[in-house]
Amino acid sequence: MDTQTVDGSADQFPLFGGALTAFIPHSATDVSDLREIPDNQEVFAHAHTDQSLIVELVEYQGHVADHDAARFHFEDIAGSNKASEPSACEVTSVVPLPKSDLSLSDCSSAWMLTGTQCVSKFNEEAKNTVTLHLGVFRLPQFSTDILITFNDPQSISPGSSSSSTSTGTHGEPWTVQDFQRLLQTLTLRIPGLFG
User: Fold this and answer.
1) pTM of the predicted model, to two decimals?
2) Contact, 133 vs 179, CB < 8 A?
3) Exposed/middle/buried for residue 195 (C-beta within 10 Å: 0-12, 13-18, 19+)
4) Per-residue confidence band for 164, with pLDDT thresholds at 50, 70 and 90
5) Residue 183: how many CA atoms within 13 Å on its side-chain side?
C-alpha cells in the first residue's frame, strides 16, 4: 500500500474534505491511507518516530465549564486509553489560548493542556509513557468541541510493538512548537461540516 507523506512546506493542509485547514508538520503520514479512521477524526503519524497527531470533532459538552474542558477531554482520552488509574495519568498544565493568536475565530474559547499517560498500544501488556498535548476549541454554536492531540512518547517499554520504532529513528521529531503552529493555523473553511 502506497502511503503519502504530508508536505510540511505547505501552509495549510485540508482536513475533513477541506472544511478545516491547518499546518501539518513535516514527515506526517495520513493514517487513513493505512487503516480505517472514524469519520470524526483525522490522524497523522510521524514517518520516523512513534509520534502522532489527531484532529477530532466531538460533541460539545455544555455541562463542562470552558476552563475545565481540556481536563474533561484529557480524562476521557485516559479512559479510552485504559490509563484512568491515578498513577497512569497526570495533568501538568492547562493554559488558555488567546483568540488573538488563533485563526479559528469562531471558537468561544480555546485551551492547551499538557499531561502524561501510561498507555499500551493495541491492548498490549507493555505500557509506554506518553506526553499528551491537547488543544481544545469550543464551538457551542455548532454543538462541537474540536480536539487536537499530539502524542509524544517519552519512554517505550521493550515489550511494546513501538520499541522497534523508537530505536534508531531518523528524521527530526515533531516539537511542541509544531503543535502550537497547528493550533494557531486551524481554520474553518466550510461551517456546513457541523451539520
Assistant:
1) 0.86
2) yes
3) exposed
4) low
5) 27
